[in-house]
Amino acid sequence: MVPPTYALMRWTLCPIVALSLAHCAQARAQSLDRDARAAAVAPDAAAPSVAADPDGNDDHEERSVGSLPAALAARAVGRAPGGLHRICDLTVFRDALFVAASNQPLGSDGAVVGRYQPGSSRTGWTTAFNWNRPGQPTRGGGGGQGFLRVRAIGDRLYVPDADTPYNGFGISEGGTEGLVFVSDAEGRFAAARGANLRPPAPPDANGFFGAGVLPRAYHVLDVIRFNGAVYASTGSVPPRERAWYGPSPGALHRADARGRRWTFAVDYPFPWQNGVWRLTFMTRFRGRLYAGIQDYDGREPNDYVTISASPSGGNDNLELSRDNVAGHRVTDHGAALTLRWYTDRGRLFWIGLERSGAARLRFTADGTRWLTVPFAPAAGRVSDVVRFRDALVALTETGIYRLADPPDDAAPTLIGPAPVFNRGRAFPVNDAFCASPLAVYRGQLYAGSQHDATLFVYE
What we know:
This protein is 3% helix and 38% strand. With 459 residues, it is mainly beta. It has a single domain, classed as YVTN repeat-like/Quinoprotein amine dehydrogenase (Methylamine Dehydrogenase, Chain H, 7 Propeller), CATH 2.130.10.10.
Protein backbone atom coordinates (compact mmCIF):
# COMPACT_ATOMS: atom_id res chain seq x y z
CA MET A 1 0.00 0.00 0.00
CA VAL A 2 1.19 3.50 -0.73
CA PRO A 3 -0.47 6.83 -0.04
CA PRO A 4 -2.97 7.35 -2.90
CA THR A 5 -1.54 10.81 -3.55
CA TYR A 6 1.53 9.04 -4.95
CA ALA A 7 -0.08 5.99 -6.52
CA LEU A 8 2.15 6.02 -9.60
CA MET A 9 3.53 3.02 -11.41
CA ARG A 10 6.60 1.97 -9.44
CA TRP A 11 9.53 0.62 -11.38
CA THR A 12 10.59 -1.53 -8.48
CA LEU A 13 7.44 -3.63 -8.47
CA CYS A 14 6.98 -4.04 -12.19
CA PRO A 15 9.10 -6.18 -14.54
CA ILE A 16 12.34 -4.31 -15.01
CA VAL A 17 12.10 -2.30 -18.22
CA ALA A 18 15.80 -2.43 -18.94
CA LEU A 19 16.18 -6.22 -18.85
CA SER A 20 17.56 -6.18 -22.37
CA LEU A 21 20.36 -3.86 -21.21
CA ALA A 22 21.27 -5.81 -18.09
CA HIS A 23 23.96 -8.02 -19.54
CA CYS A 24 25.69 -5.07 -21.17
CA ALA A 25 25.49 -3.08 -17.95
CA GLN A 26 26.78 -6.03 -15.94
CA ALA A 27 29.94 -6.08 -18.06
CA ARG A 28 30.81 -2.51 -17.03
CA ALA A 29 32.88 -3.10 -13.86
CA GLN A 30 34.59 -0.20 -12.19
CA SER A 31 38.10 0.51 -13.45
CA LEU A 32 40.36 0.71 -10.41
CA ASP A 33 44.13 0.76 -10.03
CA ARG A 34 46.04 -1.72 -7.91
CA ASP A 35 46.39 0.60 -4.92
CA ALA A 36 42.66 1.31 -4.79
CA ARG A 37 41.87 -2.39 -4.98
CA ALA A 38 44.32 -3.17 -2.19
CA ALA A 39 42.69 -0.51 0.00
CA ALA A 40 39.24 -2.00 -0.49
CA VAL A 41 40.40 -5.58 0.03
CA ALA A 42 42.47 -5.01 3.17
CA PRO A 43 40.64 -3.91 6.33
CA ASP A 44 41.53 -0.34 7.23
CA ALA A 45 42.95 0.07 10.71
CA ALA A 46 41.90 3.72 10.71
CA ALA A 47 38.25 2.90 10.03
CA PRO A 48 35.80 3.12 12.97
CA SER A 49 35.99 0.09 15.23
CA VAL A 50 33.01 -2.02 16.16
CA ALA A 51 31.19 -0.56 19.15
CA ALA A 52 28.33 -2.37 20.87
CA ASP A 53 27.44 -4.93 18.19
CA PRO A 54 29.32 -7.24 15.82
CA ASP A 55 29.15 -6.71 12.07
CA GLY A 56 26.11 -8.09 10.26
CA ASN A 57 22.65 -8.77 11.60
CA ASP A 58 21.97 -11.14 14.47
CA ASP A 59 20.96 -14.02 12.22
CA HIS A 60 22.43 -17.31 13.38
CA GLU A 61 24.61 -18.00 10.38
CA GLU A 62 25.94 -21.53 10.25
CA ARG A 63 29.63 -21.90 9.45
CA SER A 64 30.33 -25.09 7.50
CA VAL A 65 33.68 -26.86 7.27
CA GLY A 66 35.53 -28.61 4.47
CA SER A 67 36.43 -27.71 0.91
CA LEU A 68 34.02 -26.36 -1.68
CA PRO A 69 33.50 -28.95 -4.45
CA ALA A 70 34.47 -28.05 -8.00
CA ALA A 71 30.87 -28.67 -9.10
CA LEU A 72 27.47 -28.57 -7.40
CA ALA A 73 24.03 -29.69 -8.59
CA ALA A 74 20.66 -28.38 -7.42
CA ARG A 75 18.03 -30.70 -5.94
CA ALA A 76 14.53 -29.52 -5.07
CA VAL A 77 13.46 -30.28 -1.49
CA GLY A 78 9.89 -29.04 -1.80
CA ARG A 79 7.82 -25.85 -1.84
CA ALA A 80 7.37 -23.49 1.05
CA PRO A 81 3.83 -23.90 2.47
CA GLY A 82 1.07 -21.54 1.44
CA GLY A 83 1.09 -21.95 -2.34
CA LEU A 84 3.07 -18.74 -2.92
CA HIS A 85 5.55 -17.87 -5.66
CA ARG A 86 8.70 -16.38 -4.12
CA ILE A 87 11.17 -17.19 -1.38
CA CYS A 88 12.61 -13.91 -0.08
CA ASP A 89 14.74 -14.97 2.90
CA LEU A 90 16.23 -17.99 4.65
CA THR A 91 17.25 -18.02 8.32
CA VAL A 92 18.59 -20.83 10.49
CA PHE A 93 17.12 -21.00 14.00
CA ARG A 94 16.85 -23.86 16.51
CA ASP A 95 18.18 -26.40 13.98
CA ALA A 96 15.49 -25.50 11.43
CA LEU A 97 15.51 -23.39 8.28
CA PHE A 98 12.85 -20.66 8.38
CA VAL A 99 11.60 -19.41 5.03
CA ALA A 100 9.97 -16.04 4.26
CA ALA A 101 7.57 -16.47 1.33
CA SER A 102 5.59 -13.93 -0.72
CA ASN A 103 3.83 -13.45 -4.02
CA GLN A 104 4.36 -9.87 -5.22
CA PRO A 105 5.54 -7.97 -2.14
CA LEU A 106 3.63 -4.75 -1.44
CA GLY A 107 1.51 -5.54 -4.50
CA SER A 108 -0.61 -8.65 -3.88
CA ASP A 109 -1.63 -10.87 -0.97
CA GLY A 110 0.71 -13.61 0.17
CA ALA A 111 2.74 -13.85 3.38
CA VAL A 112 3.78 -17.13 5.01
CA VAL A 113 6.70 -18.21 7.18
CA GLY A 114 7.61 -21.81 6.46
CA ARG A 115 9.78 -24.11 8.55
CA TYR A 116 11.97 -26.74 6.91
CA GLN A 117 13.59 -29.42 9.06
CA PRO A 118 14.32 -32.78 7.43
CA GLY A 119 13.04 -35.62 9.57
CA SER A 120 10.53 -33.50 11.49
CA SER A 121 7.62 -34.58 9.27
CA ARG A 122 6.99 -36.65 6.15
CA THR A 123 8.15 -33.81 3.90
CA GLY A 124 10.20 -31.86 6.43
CA TRP A 125 7.89 -28.85 5.94
CA THR A 126 5.54 -27.18 8.39
CA THR A 127 3.86 -23.76 8.52
CA ALA A 128 5.38 -21.52 11.17
CA PHE A 129 3.02 -18.59 10.58
CA ASN A 130 0.28 -17.98 8.01
CA TRP A 131 -0.75 -14.37 7.38
CA ASN A 132 -2.80 -15.10 4.27
CA ARG A 133 -6.05 -14.77 6.30
CA PRO A 134 -8.09 -17.16 4.11
CA GLY A 135 -11.80 -16.34 3.84
CA GLN A 136 -11.45 -12.69 4.85
CA PRO A 137 -12.65 -9.81 2.63
CA THR A 138 -10.02 -9.06 0.00
CA ARG A 139 -10.77 -5.38 -0.56
CA GLY A 140 -7.75 -3.42 0.60
CA GLY A 141 -5.78 -6.66 0.83
CA GLY A 142 -7.24 -9.52 2.82
CA GLY A 143 -3.85 -10.82 3.90
CA GLY A 144 -0.33 -9.61 4.40
CA GLN A 145 1.40 -8.57 1.19
CA GLY A 146 4.79 -10.10 1.76
CA PHE A 147 7.28 -11.37 4.30
CA LEU A 148 10.69 -10.16 3.15
CA ARG A 149 12.92 -11.07 6.11
CA VAL A 150 13.00 -13.54 8.98
CA ARG A 151 15.51 -12.21 11.52
CA ALA A 152 17.01 -14.16 14.42
CA ILE A 153 17.76 -11.61 17.14
CA GLY A 154 18.78 -12.98 20.50
CA ASP A 155 16.56 -15.97 21.24
CA ARG A 156 13.58 -14.81 19.14
CA LEU A 157 12.59 -14.56 15.49
CA TYR A 158 11.30 -11.22 14.17
CA VAL A 159 9.23 -11.10 10.98
CA PRO A 160 8.21 -7.65 9.65
CA ASP A 161 4.84 -7.40 7.88
CA ALA A 162 5.76 -5.62 4.64
CA ASP A 163 2.20 -4.43 3.94
CA THR A 164 -0.56 -4.78 6.53
CA PRO A 165 -4.06 -5.80 5.41
CA TYR A 166 -6.64 -3.01 5.01
CA ASN A 167 -4.02 -0.26 5.52
CA GLY A 168 -3.97 -1.31 9.16
CA PHE A 169 -6.63 -2.54 11.56
CA GLY A 170 -7.18 0.72 13.44
CA ILE A 171 -5.46 -0.64 16.54
CA SER A 172 -3.22 2.42 17.00
CA GLU A 173 -3.30 6.15 16.55
CA GLY A 174 -2.04 7.90 13.44
CA GLY A 175 -4.35 6.48 10.79
CA THR A 176 -2.28 3.42 9.93
CA GLU A 177 0.06 0.94 11.58
CA GLY A 178 2.58 -1.74 10.75
CA LEU A 179 3.30 -5.04 12.49
CA VAL A 180 6.31 -7.11 13.49
CA PHE A 181 5.55 -10.72 14.40
CA VAL A 182 7.76 -12.03 17.24
CA SER A 183 8.24 -15.72 18.02
CA ASP A 184 8.81 -17.44 21.33
CA ALA A 185 12.21 -18.89 22.21
CA GLU A 186 11.48 -22.06 20.22
CA GLY A 187 10.57 -20.25 17.01
CA ARG A 188 6.80 -20.64 17.43
CA PHE A 189 4.49 -17.81 16.38
CA ALA A 190 1.10 -16.89 17.81
CA ALA A 191 -1.71 -17.51 15.32
CA ALA A 192 -4.07 -14.86 13.99
CA ARG A 193 -6.96 -14.33 16.41
CA GLY A 194 -10.65 -15.06 16.29
CA ALA A 195 -13.15 -15.69 13.51
CA ASN A 196 -11.88 -12.62 11.61
CA LEU A 197 -8.22 -13.63 11.89
CA ARG A 198 -7.02 -10.39 13.38
CA PRO A 199 -3.36 -9.93 14.40
CA PRO A 200 -2.11 -11.88 17.40
CA ALA A 201 -1.99 -10.08 20.74
CA PRO A 202 1.21 -8.15 21.48
CA PRO A 203 4.11 -10.14 22.95
CA ASP A 204 3.78 -10.63 26.70
CA ALA A 205 6.32 -10.54 29.48
CA ASN A 206 6.34 -14.31 29.90
CA GLY A 207 6.41 -15.74 26.40
CA PHE A 208 7.53 -12.76 24.25
CA PHE A 209 5.22 -14.11 21.59
CA GLY A 210 2.83 -12.11 19.38
CA ALA A 211 2.56 -9.05 17.13
CA GLY A 212 4.31 -5.79 17.94
CA VAL A 213 2.54 -2.65 16.68
CA LEU A 214 4.26 0.22 14.85
CA PRO A 215 1.93 3.24 14.90
CA ARG A 216 2.07 5.47 11.81
CA ALA A 217 3.98 2.93 9.66
CA TYR A 218 2.82 2.22 6.11
CA HIS A 219 5.31 -0.60 5.48
CA VAL A 220 7.75 -2.58 7.64
CA LEU A 221 10.63 -4.11 5.71
CA ASP A 222 13.41 -5.24 8.06
CA VAL A 223 14.43 -5.56 11.73
CA ILE A 224 17.85 -5.27 13.38
CA ARG A 225 19.50 -4.78 16.77
CA PHE A 226 21.70 -1.67 16.91
CA ASN A 227 23.39 0.25 19.70
CA GLY A 228 21.49 -1.55 22.46
CA ALA A 229 17.98 -1.50 20.96
CA VAL A 230 15.90 -3.24 18.26
CA TYR A 231 14.78 -1.17 15.25
CA ALA A 232 12.49 -1.75 12.28
CA SER A 233 12.92 -0.01 8.91
CA THR A 234 9.75 1.49 7.46
CA GLY A 235 7.99 4.00 5.29
CA SER A 236 6.03 6.11 7.72
CA VAL A 237 3.80 9.05 8.61
CA PRO A 238 5.96 11.75 10.23
CA PRO A 239 5.07 12.79 13.79
CA ARG A 240 2.06 15.10 14.01
CA GLU A 241 1.36 14.66 10.28
CA ARG A 242 -1.83 13.20 8.81
CA ALA A 243 -1.71 9.72 7.25
CA TRP A 244 -2.28 9.36 3.50
CA TYR A 245 -1.46 13.01 2.80
CA GLY A 246 1.74 14.98 2.53
CA PRO A 247 5.28 13.63 2.94
CA SER A 248 6.12 10.02 3.78
CA PRO A 249 9.80 9.64 4.76
CA GLY A 250 11.65 6.45 5.42
CA ALA A 251 12.09 5.84 9.12
CA LEU A 252 13.41 3.63 11.90
CA HIS A 253 11.03 2.60 14.68
CA ARG A 254 12.44 1.49 18.01
CA ALA A 255 10.96 -1.39 20.00
CA ASP A 256 10.24 -1.27 23.70
CA ALA A 257 11.81 -3.91 25.94
CA ARG A 258 9.21 -6.57 25.07
CA GLY A 259 8.71 -5.79 21.40
CA ARG A 260 5.09 -4.77 22.01
CA ARG A 261 5.19 -1.18 20.86
CA TRP A 262 7.55 0.55 18.44
CA THR A 263 8.19 4.30 18.43
CA PHE A 264 9.16 6.56 15.52
CA ALA A 265 12.88 7.21 16.16
CA VAL A 266 14.62 8.81 13.17
CA ASP A 267 13.74 9.61 9.54
CA TYR A 268 15.19 10.17 6.08
CA PRO A 269 15.13 12.45 4.18
CA PHE A 270 14.80 15.50 6.39
CA PRO A 271 13.52 18.14 5.86
CA TRP A 272 10.59 16.07 4.65
CA GLN A 273 9.74 16.23 0.96
CA ASN A 274 6.53 15.58 -0.90
CA GLY A 275 6.81 12.00 -1.97
CA VAL A 276 7.24 8.50 -0.60
CA TRP A 277 10.50 7.11 0.77
CA ARG A 278 11.25 3.91 2.61
CA LEU A 279 14.26 2.65 4.51
CA THR A 280 14.66 -0.96 3.46
CA PHE A 281 17.16 -3.72 4.30
CA MET A 282 19.76 -3.22 7.03
CA THR A 283 23.08 -4.44 8.38
CA ARG A 284 25.77 -3.33 10.85
CA PHE A 285 29.37 -2.65 9.84
CA ARG A 286 32.18 -1.07 11.85
CA GLY A 287 29.89 0.54 14.39
CA ARG A 288 27.42 2.01 11.88
CA LEU A 289 23.98 0.92 10.75
CA TYR A 290 23.53 0.68 6.97
CA ALA A 291 20.02 0.89 5.46
CA GLY A 292 18.86 0.78 1.86
CA ILE A 293 16.64 3.53 0.46
CA GLN A 294 13.63 3.33 -1.80
CA ASP A 295 12.31 6.53 -3.32
CA TYR A 296 8.94 5.86 -4.92
CA ASP A 297 9.52 8.43 -7.67
CA GLY A 298 13.14 7.44 -8.30
CA ARG A 299 14.74 10.84 -7.75
CA GLU A 300 16.76 10.07 -4.62
CA PRO A 301 20.44 11.01 -5.19
CA ASN A 302 21.84 8.49 -2.67
CA ASP A 303 22.00 4.70 -2.68
CA TYR A 304 21.88 4.02 1.08
CA VAL A 305 22.13 5.75 4.44
CA THR A 306 24.38 5.15 7.42
CA ILE A 307 23.50 5.88 11.04
CA SER A 308 26.40 6.20 13.44
CA ALA A 309 26.35 4.88 16.96
CA SER A 310 26.40 7.35 19.81
CA PRO A 311 29.89 8.81 20.37
CA SER A 312 29.77 7.50 23.93
CA GLY A 313 29.59 3.94 22.57
CA GLY A 314 28.72 0.91 24.66
CA ASN A 315 25.23 -0.39 25.41
CA ASP A 316 23.88 2.89 26.73
CA ASN A 317 20.53 2.55 24.93
CA LEU A 318 20.84 6.13 23.73
CA GLU A 319 18.35 7.58 21.31
CA LEU A 320 19.23 8.12 17.67
CA SER A 321 19.02 11.59 16.15
CA ARG A 322 18.91 13.04 12.66
CA ASP A 323 22.46 14.27 13.21
CA ASN A 324 23.58 10.63 13.03
CA VAL A 325 22.09 10.02 9.56
CA ALA A 326 24.10 10.43 6.34
CA GLY A 327 23.27 9.54 2.74
CA HIS A 328 25.84 7.87 0.47
CA ARG A 329 26.08 7.44 -3.28
CA VAL A 330 28.11 4.69 -4.92
CA THR A 331 26.41 4.13 -8.29
CA ASP A 332 26.51 6.52 -11.23
CA HIS A 333 22.95 7.77 -10.87
CA GLY A 334 21.98 6.98 -7.26
CA ALA A 335 18.61 5.54 -6.23
CA ALA A 336 19.94 1.97 -6.40
CA LEU A 337 17.73 -0.46 -4.50
CA THR A 338 19.41 -2.65 -1.90
CA LEU A 339 18.79 -6.34 -2.48
CA ARG A 340 21.16 -7.74 0.13
CA TRP A 341 23.95 -6.93 2.62
CA TYR A 342 26.50 -9.45 3.86
CA THR A 343 29.51 -9.12 6.16
CA ASP A 344 32.46 -11.50 6.10
CA ARG A 345 35.95 -11.31 7.62
CA GLY A 346 36.06 -7.55 7.97
CA ARG A 347 34.38 -6.76 4.64
CA LEU A 348 30.90 -5.54 3.77
CA PHE A 349 29.23 -6.83 0.61
CA TRP A 350 26.35 -4.95 -0.99
CA ILE A 351 24.08 -5.93 -3.87
CA GLY A 352 22.31 -2.96 -5.44
CA LEU A 353 19.73 -3.02 -8.23
CA GLU A 354 20.55 -0.03 -10.41
CA ARG A 355 18.44 2.05 -12.76
CA SER A 356 20.03 0.30 -15.74
CA GLY A 357 18.56 -3.00 -14.51
CA ALA A 358 21.96 -4.37 -13.44
CA ALA A 359 22.30 -5.92 -9.98
CA ARG A 360 25.97 -5.73 -9.03
CA LEU A 361 27.90 -7.15 -6.09
CA ARG A 362 30.28 -4.64 -4.46
CA PHE A 363 32.46 -4.87 -1.37
CA THR A 364 34.40 -2.59 0.97
CA ALA A 365 36.76 -2.95 3.91
CA ASP A 366 36.34 0.55 5.29
CA GLY A 367 32.73 1.40 4.39
CA THR A 368 33.84 4.11 1.98
CA ARG A 369 35.87 2.68 -0.92
CA TRP A 370 33.84 0.19 -2.92
CA LEU A 371 34.94 -2.34 -5.54
CA THR A 372 32.77 -4.30 -7.95
CA VAL A 373 33.09 -8.08 -8.24
CA PRO A 374 33.65 -8.56 -12.01
CA PHE A 375 31.09 -11.18 -13.05
CA ALA A 376 31.02 -12.07 -16.73
CA PRO A 377 27.93 -10.74 -18.57
CA ALA A 378 26.59 -14.29 -18.94
CA ALA A 379 26.25 -14.60 -15.15
CA GLY A 380 23.23 -12.27 -15.10
CA ARG A 381 22.16 -10.29 -12.06
CA VAL A 382 23.37 -11.17 -8.56
CA SER A 383 20.95 -11.82 -5.68
CA ASP A 384 22.99 -13.07 -2.68
CA VAL A 385 26.43 -13.97 -1.35
CA VAL A 386 27.50 -16.19 1.57
CA ARG A 387 30.52 -18.05 2.91
CA PHE A 388 30.17 -21.80 2.30
CA ARG A 389 32.86 -24.17 3.52
CA ASP A 390 36.22 -22.62 2.59
CA ALA A 391 34.96 -20.17 -0.04
CA LEU A 392 32.73 -17.23 -0.83
CA VAL A 393 29.88 -18.10 -3.18
CA ALA A 394 27.30 -15.90 -4.87
CA LEU A 395 23.90 -16.67 -6.35
CA THR A 396 23.07 -15.15 -9.73
CA GLU A 397 20.33 -15.69 -12.28
CA THR A 398 22.41 -18.45 -13.87
CA GLY A 399 23.55 -20.29 -10.75
CA ILE A 400 26.13 -20.58 -7.96
CA TYR A 401 29.50 -18.89 -8.54
CA ARG A 402 32.73 -19.20 -6.60
CA LEU A 403 34.42 -15.87 -5.85
CA ALA A 404 38.10 -15.20 -5.32
CA ASP A 405 38.74 -14.90 -1.59
CA PRO A 406 39.40 -12.05 -1.08
CA PRO A 407 37.74 -10.92 -4.33
CA ASP A 408 40.14 -9.79 -7.05
CA ASP A 409 40.10 -8.98 -10.78
CA ALA A 410 39.23 -12.54 -11.76
CA ALA A 411 35.67 -13.25 -12.87
CA PRO A 412 33.82 -15.63 -10.50
CA THR A 413 33.48 -19.23 -11.69
CA LEU A 414 30.17 -21.03 -12.24
CA ILE A 415 30.08 -24.21 -10.13
CA GLY A 416 26.35 -24.93 -9.89
CA PRO A 417 23.91 -24.07 -12.71
CA ALA A 418 20.48 -22.72 -11.88
CA PRO A 419 17.51 -25.05 -12.36
CA VAL A 420 15.21 -24.19 -15.25
CA PHE A 421 11.40 -24.13 -15.04
CA ASN A 422 8.93 -23.85 -17.90
CA ARG A 423 8.81 -20.12 -17.12
CA GLY A 424 12.58 -19.71 -17.03
CA ARG A 425 15.41 -20.08 -14.53
CA ALA A 426 14.73 -20.44 -10.83
CA PHE A 427 16.48 -17.27 -9.63
CA PRO A 428 15.47 -14.28 -11.77
CA VAL A 429 16.08 -10.86 -10.25
CA ASN A 430 12.78 -9.19 -11.15
CA ASP A 431 11.49 -7.79 -7.86
CA ALA A 432 13.34 -5.17 -5.82
CA PHE A 433 11.92 -6.38 -2.50
CA CYS A 434 12.35 -10.12 -2.98
CA ALA A 435 15.55 -11.57 -4.45
CA SER A 436 16.53 -15.23 -4.20
CA PRO A 437 18.44 -15.94 -0.96
CA LEU A 438 21.22 -18.30 0.09
CA ALA A 439 21.73 -20.00 3.45
CA VAL A 440 24.01 -22.64 4.93
CA TYR A 441 22.04 -25.19 6.94
CA ARG A 442 23.31 -28.47 8.39
CA GLY A 443 26.50 -28.09 6.36
CA GLN A 444 24.70 -27.74 3.03
CA LEU A 445 24.02 -24.79 0.74
CA TYR A 446 20.36 -23.85 0.14
CA ALA A 447 18.85 -21.42 -2.36
CA GLY A 448 15.26 -20.13 -2.50
CA SER A 449 13.64 -19.74 -5.89
CA GLN A 450 11.26 -17.22 -7.45
CA HIS A 451 9.07 -19.88 -9.09
CA ASP A 452 6.53 -21.74 -6.94
CA ALA A 453 8.55 -20.90 -3.79
CA THR A 454 10.69 -23.99 -4.35
CA LEU A 455 13.67 -24.57 -2.07
CA PHE A 456 16.83 -26.13 -3.54
CA VAL A 457 19.86 -27.69 -1.92
CA TYR A 458 23.16 -27.67 -3.83
CA GLU A 459 25.09 -30.91 -3.38
